[in-house]
Amino acid sequence: MDNPKYIFFLGIGGIGMSALARYFNNANFIVAGYDKTPSPLTHTLADEGIEISFFDDVVGIPKIIIENKGESLVVYTPAIPSDNKIFNFFSEQGFVLKKRAEVLGMITAQTVNLSVAGTHGKTTTSCIVATILQHSTLHFSAFLGGISTNLASNYYYQSASSAHISVTEADEFDRSFLQLKPKFAVITSTDADHLDIYGKREELEQSYQEFASLVPDKKDVFVAYASKDLINGVTYSASNTNADYYAIVKSRSGKGTHFSIHNNLGETPIEDVYLNIPGLHNLENALGAALMTRQAGVAIESIVAGLANFKGIKRRFEYILRTDKVIYIDDYAHHPSELRAIISSVRELYPNKKITAVFQPHLYSRTQDFMAEFAYELSQVDELLLLPIYPARELPIEGVTSEAVMELIRLSNAQCVAKEDVITVLKNRHVDVLLTLGAGDIDRLILPLKEFYVS
Length: 455
Fold this sequence. Notes:
Largest sheet: 10 strands, mixed
Number of helices: 16
Distance between the termini: 55 Å
Strand content: 15-25%
Strand order of the largest sheet: 8-7-9-6-10-11-12-13-14-15
CATH topology of the largest domain: UDP-N-acetylmuramoyl-L-alanine:D-glutamate ligase
CATH class of the largest domain: Alpha Beta
């Protein structure tokens, strides 16, 4: 279908799906959608004029779409279950259905695409790329996997008279990123994940190699040093001086990091750079973003300004409270490597404070694949509240529970609790630094916890 008029999104509340919905809505298409549950994001989409149903029933589909099958496009996320009634109706009635990744690839195919892939770090890196471009003279669009504080959205668009630049977060789930046509790419990590889709680590690694091969010139592929043996590209590191490009930290605090960018290629170092968010893992993300945008033609001055003015992302090392009594940080971490990054960064920033973490495992399959790794990383905090597993698209797996993870945790002050009991439990605890961690609906705790500690 070349020119649809009506777009219906199945799973419109997803972070990637909502960015596409905003794109089509801004382009004056008639946009509607379905999602399982309301959320702050669906409320925002509704405020922008998008009709959304939360009932898996054909009656929730706008009549104008049903009556105009030939001019309608249905976009769906792979996370939609096979028994979804709306999906099956569209399929049986012969509507044109396309996956989110295919549509994203179609609308960015004619742009100069800057793409960020990685098991973790890709959302922060792509948002930093967008902020750098904001501080340049270049016109761009951005499709992000998180709510950028600088853009106040996961979607951004500027019209351009010349070749348009697009920023995309390249999702490895379901091999979605192979639908893109990147001109420049950053690969932040290639750790094993989504093994329910790939089966084994080697299959996932092969998909990253295939993604890297989509970039026409290898000098335009920037890869974190830890993945140097897997991906052929320009390497970078926040700490390893053997990488092609590496950071030298001058000073760092709970607010940000002063550093310079050095290299082993004979180039002049880039001095006096400041990243306006803390954490060594974020420094590495910033390094990848800086190198890719420089290669794409962005001036060094714009890169430095973008990093200095980057305000972060919702649910990525996000400070909810910073008072004399309590420091509260929320993070989307849902993989052992991500837990290691956030916990080690917080430990380094606050070495003399007790760290209390509330963690919600995401997916039975991921918990099963990394049960021992989760237990090890969670054992690095001082106090742990472990919530039940958030199932998302999955059915339970026998023997895979938070209680099973708890048995492996080497921490005396740890317990499994229901989400609704978290505040009650914390009322009787002294908390120095509080972390809420996870990719499920743990974000529903953020406001109640903030209000509790403020009051």
